Amino acid sequence: MAITLAITNQKGGVGKTTTAVNLSAGLAAKGLRVLLVDLDPQANATMGCGIDKLHVPLTVYHLLLETAELTDIRKKADAGFDVIPANRDLAGAEVEMVSLLAREQRLKGALEDIQDQYDLILLDCPPALNLLTLNGLVAADAVLIPMQCEYYALEGLSDLVNTIRMVKKHLNNRIDILGLLRTMVDARSTLSQQVSEQLQKHFGDKVFETVIPRNVRLAEAPSHGIPGVLYDKSSRGAQAYAAFTDELISRCQLSLPETADSAA
Ligand code: ADP
Ligand code: MG
Q1: What is the pLDDT of residues 138-153, one digit of tens each?
Q2: Which residues form the AAA domain (predicted)?
Q3: How many CB atoms lie within 10 A of CB 206?
Q4: N or C: at which end does the chain have fewer Cβ atoms within 10 angstroms?
Q5: pTM of the predicted protein model
Q6: Which ligand sits nearest to residue 16's alpha carbon?
Q7: Cα separations in angstroms, 103 against 98, 108, 130
Q8: Ligand 2 centroid, distance to 45 Cα (angstroms)
Q9: Over 80: is that where the pLDDT of 262 sits?
Q10: How far is the CA of 153 from the centre of ligand 2 (A)?
Q11: pLDDT exceeds 60 at position 260
């Protein structure tokens, strides 16, 4: 059985996609079998993995509407993991799904048959608490929340936490918060430190120890279609995501395949 993680925050630009792509690459480099599902019509995760969204005839849209098979939609990223790509078609899916039966269970159903092919399935959610995100939350075992340490960050978090609570009560009783990841952190900023302290007060050890710094190499990598952890391995951003990958492996109690681990 794979562990399925929804990478969610209804705010845009907080590092969801950067985390999804770099974590996928980091886990794959450890020899783990990873599937990344792009649930955002902007398709930044798809592009960030080096897959051209303008040249994918089949996407997660077809998966949700059950008009194509997962095996026909799935692509391979050069970084060693599988991808269910997205493109702008997905923007229409929400409306088209409204009249469908079990519309919030579609992704979960689609992933059921491939559970034993992966160690981890990562879902890169769009910046909204919409039907696509809901599909992610229903399919997930746990939620990973990337966030910037800004003044309004905590306010937005309570909406997300309430949504997760509702999903747990009505749609998916497995779901839990795996953890909160602080992204784009400027270590010198006192605001960052204050928000960090408040986060730790509210969420305790749910807050990952690893902090992702603001680092230009991470921002440059997507335009080359290469995950930041591979684009410039020595950069502070890449090293932070590598450390985060290790922390997540231990938090999820994943065991590594012996050969790949010693090679890594
Ligand atoms: P989201 O998926 O939450 O909308 P992204 O991961 O796309 O957020 O990040 C938003 C923007 O910030 C992107 O241009 C990305 O390249 C950049 N970015 C993300 N993380 C970092 C970081 N740690 N340092 C610098 N830039 C970053
Ligand atoms: Mg994104």
Answers
A1: 999 999 999 999 888 8
A2: 4-177
A3: 15
A4: N
A5: 0.96
A6: 1
A7: 7, 10, 12
A8: 7
A9: no
A10: 16
A11: no
